[in-house]
UniProtKB/TrEMBL annotation:
Catalysis performed (reactions): 2 GTP = 3',3'-c-di-GMP + 2 diphosphate
Name assigned to this protein: diguanylate cyclase
SUPFAM superfamilies assigned to the protein according to its UniProt record, in alphabetical order: Nucleotide cyclase (SSF55073), TPR-like (SSF48452)
Organism lineage string: Bacteria, Pseudomonadati, Pseudomonadota, Gammaproteobacteria, Alteromonadales
InterPro entries: Diguanylate_Cyclase, GGDEF_dom, Nucleotide_cyclase, Rev_trsase/Diguanyl_cyclase, TPR-like_helical_dom_sf, TPR_rpt
Chain positions of TPR repeats: 227-260, 267-300
């Protein structure tokens, strides 16, 4: 499924080539021109680039630094819409640091969103970028901008398979757009909702949403986005096996992409047509479309789509009896698979299926059977992993649901009290009936509360553990730190907070693999646990960061604790890691002061000390003295 790339100010990245840019004499006038270009719905991203370059030349000539950043943000989003990822990435690298100011907060968020999209396409980490966006939500007041942020967050949940959260955020985006009657934002959000319902196999619902979005886009005369919606419509018709309507919609989408010289749109549609013809066993046509689509995705290093196309090509070649050609393509597929993340193991399974099919075509039925057996095992593992991720997702939302349940129970109790007061003047029979009703309701509430308490205790225990290291997680260690902070405020006993960060942990993952990285995290957890007292506590604070809460401890004791942990770490033995690879860590520590109003102030100082330790060369500790 294709996603309509949305921006924060414009959401569409279109320009008006027929508009002559008026003479610009100030940054405010330039900003008006920029918004006018973004709000026009009749031209293509290619035409938009020409208009943006004109504005950029004016900003550079006048040395308007903020305007230079804002125009380049729009250019980045245009390149992203055209899926020219490398060009967009180079501009992000240049202008993201320059946008980190209060005046450019909106531009900064837009660049972070663009980086988030690129990272997802290229299988790079996205969690830190999402946290950055969440932290800035309260700073954004413009409903159009908020709608864009909610939409992108919803898209991230959709691409992770967390569909209920995706629906929640897309509906939040829809509310923002409806409040200001922003039709383009509404249409793009409805398209995203259609993609989500399609992922839930509710294809008829998806088609209804897409037809709504298509009508809006046609009213706006947005041909570029019309082609995307037609593409998605074709996908859903294909799922319903209505192949005639699917081909018709794909053909309309491809025609528009060719008219607009939308190379990305052509590639996506050609890939989809290849899949459609492959499903209908028209393998020669499928191979033709796959071959036409492949160069675009290779140029943009879109490994997932490259893999999907290659799998389709291999299957088509095998079905056509071209075993030798298929065997050569399998070798290329194997090299691609090694570059994929663990989360992409559905493609690895697809590769093994084709390997099994190829082995059978060559008469090697034993190898084919062994590979198919492994496919079955991997499918089971993938199902278990997805079930675990769904369980974690439920835990995250448990607290919110509990509060809502508590509020409903409280509201019901208040209603009952009010009812009893109103019935005091009634006859005895009516009073007894009301009393009986109250008793029944209270029994039901008591039963529900009992069940809720049992579930809460169960989930709370699970919600406070890090599943990889079995150490307390971020939530648990912060709760403990807060309790100790309150005790310290009352008793005046010393309390020290330390943050530990593993040095060069990314190199461990890159050089030795994520399984070795996981083993290192487990070993560090054991080393830290054996280095502190029973009344102290540590927990996993971030990816490779640990928060240590040391009760009745002064900063002068940190050196001893650091050396103790260092000694225990030096005794760690990890398989598949080179013996001369030094596993070290940096530590920052801060002690509670009388002026501290919250534990967050202490943690912040410790984090600043950690930063100094890392800047100073790592493998050391720094305290806030």
């Amino acid at each position: 499924m294709r996603i309509i790339i949305t921006t924060i100010f414009s959401m569409i990245l279109l320009t008006f080539s027929n508009l002559v840019i008026a003479e610009v004499t100030s940054q405010s006038e330039l900003q008006k021109q920029l918004i006018a270009i973004e709000d026009n719905m009749s031209a293509t991203p290619e035409q938009q680039l020409m208009e943006y370059q004109t504005l950029l030349a004016i900003a550079e000539q006048n040395e308007w630094q903020n305007s230079i950043v804002r125009v380049n943000v729009a250019i980045v989003e245009t390149y992203l819409a055209l899926e020219r990822l490398q060009t967009a990435q180079s501009l992000i690298s240049e202008y993201l640091p320059k946008s980190d100011t209060t005046e450019l907060i909106e531009s900064n968020v837009r660049l972070v969103l663009a980086q988030l999209r690129i990272n997802h396409i290229q299988n790079q980490p996205t969690s830190e970028l999402l946290e950055d966006i969440y932290s800035k939500l309260t700073l954004i007041k413009d409903k159009k901008i908020l709608g864009g942020i909610y939409s992108v967050i919803g898209t991230q949940f959709y691409e992770k398979g967390q569909l209920e959260q995706a629906i929640t955020y897309q509906n939040l985006a829809r509310e923002q757009y409806e409040a200001i009657d922003y039709k383009y934002g509404l249409a793009s959000t409805v398209n995203s909702l259609a993609n989500i319902y399609s992922a839930k196999s509710e294809y008829k619902m998806a088609i209804e949403y897409l037809q709504e979005s298509l009508a809006i886009m046609r009213s706006l005369k947005s041909k570029y986005n019309e082609s995307i919606i037609l593409f998605n419509l074709a996908h859903n018709y294909g799922y319903l096996k209505d192949y005639d309507k699917a081909k018709q919609a794909y053909s309309q989408s491809l025609k528009i992409s060719i008219e607009l010289n939308d190379i990305a749109g052509q590639a996506w549609t050609e890939q989809a047509l290849g899949g459609l013809y492959e499903s209908q066993e028209s393998y020669e046509k499928a191979l033709l479309y796959y071959n036409q689509a492949l160069p675009f995705f290779e140029e943009n290093k879109d490994k997932r789509n490259i893999m999907n196309i290659q799998l389709g090509r291999v299957n088509s070649l095998i079905e056509m009896g071209e075993v030798e050609k298929a065997e050569k393509e399998i070798v290329y597929l194997e090299s691609l698979t090694n570059e994929l993340k663990q989360s992409e193991n559905d493609l690895t399974i697809g590769l093994m299926r084709q390997q099994a099919k190829l082995s059978a075509a060559k008469g090697d039925f034993k190898t084919a059977f062994d590979l198919q057996t492994q496919v079955t095992k991997d499918l089971q593992k993938m199902h278990e992993r997805m079930s675990h991720e769904k369980h974690e997702e439920l835990l995250v939302h448990y607290d919110m649901e509990k509060k809502e349940n508590d509020n409903r129970v409280l509201q019901r109790e208040n209603e009952l009290k009010e009812l009893k007061l109103q019935q005091k003047q009634r006859e005895g029979l009516v009073w007894r009936l009301i009393l009986a009703f109250v008793v029944i309701v209270l029994l039901v509430i008591g039963f529900l509360l009992h069940r809720l308490l049992l579930n809460r205790n169960h989930f709370q225990q699970m919600a406070l553990k890090d599943h990889l290291t079995d150490a307390p997680n971020r939530r648990a260690i912060l709760q403990f730190a807060e309790r100790q902070f309150q005790i310290t405020k009352r008793t005046k006993q010393p309390l020290t907070i330390a943050i530990i960060d593993l040095d060069y942990f990314k190199k461990i993952n890159d050089n030795f693999g994520h399984e070795v990285g996981d083993a290192v995290l487990v070993a560090y957890a054991k080393a830290i646990k054996s280095s502190i007292r029973s009344q102290d506590m540590f927990g996993r604070y971030g990816g490779e960061e640990w928060l240590v809460v040391l009760t009745n401890t002064n900063l002068e004791d940190i050196k001893t604790i650091f050396e103790r942990i260092k000694t225990n770490v030096s005794q760690i033995e990890i398989d598949n890691i080179e013996e001369d690879f030094a596993m070290t860590f940096s530590l920052g520590a801060s002690q509670v002061e009388s002026s501290d109003g919250s534990i967050n102030e202490v943690i912040k100082r410790a984090d600043e000390c950690l930063y100094k330790a890392k800047e100073g060369g790592r493998n050391q500790f720094v305290t806030a003295i």
